[in-house]
Design goal:
alpha/beta, Rossmann fold, 6-phosphogluconate dehydrogenase C-terminal fold, five-stranded mixed β-sheet, about 55% helix
Amino acid sequence: MGGSWGLALEKAGFRGRRVGCDRREIVERAMRREVVDEGSPDPVEAVREADLIILATPVGSILDLLPKLKKACAYNALVTDVGSTKRLICWRAHELLGAEPLFLGGHPLAGKERSGLENADARLFERSRYVLTPLMPAHQSDPRAQRFAALLTALGAQPYWTDAASHDRGIALLSHLPQLLSTSLASLIAEQATEERLPLELAASGFRDVTRLADSPYSIWRDICLTNSENIQFALEALIQKLESMKLHLADRELEREFQKASRLRDKLREIS
C-alpha cells in the first residue's frame, strides 16, 4: 500500500519529496523503482519536517508507531493511516496526538490480496472509495483534512467520510467476512482434497473467484481480527444462521427467494459502483 501511494503521487505530478520508511533493503529497492525519492529505516527520521505522514503498515504496527510520532512530527502536519480497522487506531491517536499534529483515519477500499513492494500499483486508488474517519466531526473541516481529501480526488479516489465505529461495523460484513469466508472455503477444500481425494481439476472459475482472497497473508489479517473481533463475530454468526437456513430449504421455494434477494443486491452494487 505504501508503494502504491508513492507511485500514485508520482503519476499525479506531485512535486514534493516522497520519503519512505522500511528496512534499509526495502527502501533501497523503492528508490531504485522511483517509488520514493529518499528513505530511512528510522520512522522518527523519516517523518521529520513532513507535511503529510501516511502510516502504510498492518494495524498492529500503526498502533506501535503512533507513540513515536508526537515529538517527531511537525505540529501542523497531517498524520493518516491505511488500516482496515479504525476504532482502536483513532482512539489511540486521539489519546496520543490530539490536534497537533492532526490525525485523520484512512482506509482505502482498494487493496490487493498480495502485499509487498513488487505488487505496488500507481492506479490502485483510481475509481475506488477511500474512507476517512476524523477523530471528531470538526476535524473534517480542518484545512489539512480538506487538502488530503482533494489529494485523494486528484489520485482518482472518492473520499467517503464516516465515523470509526460505523466503519468497523460495516467493514466487518463487507470486507472482513468475505475474507474469512474465502479463507475457510479454501481451507475446507484443502482438507477435503487430502482426506477424500477430491480432484482439484474440477475447480473452475467460480471456485477460483470465490477463493481469490485466500491468497491474503495472515500477518495482515491477524491484527484486523484482533481489533474488530466483536463486529466480526456478529458477522460470522449472521452468516452461519443464513447457511443453516439455506440448508433447511434446499428442497423448497424458500431457496429461490434467497437467490432473488442476492440478485437484487448485485443489481444495487452495480448501480453504485
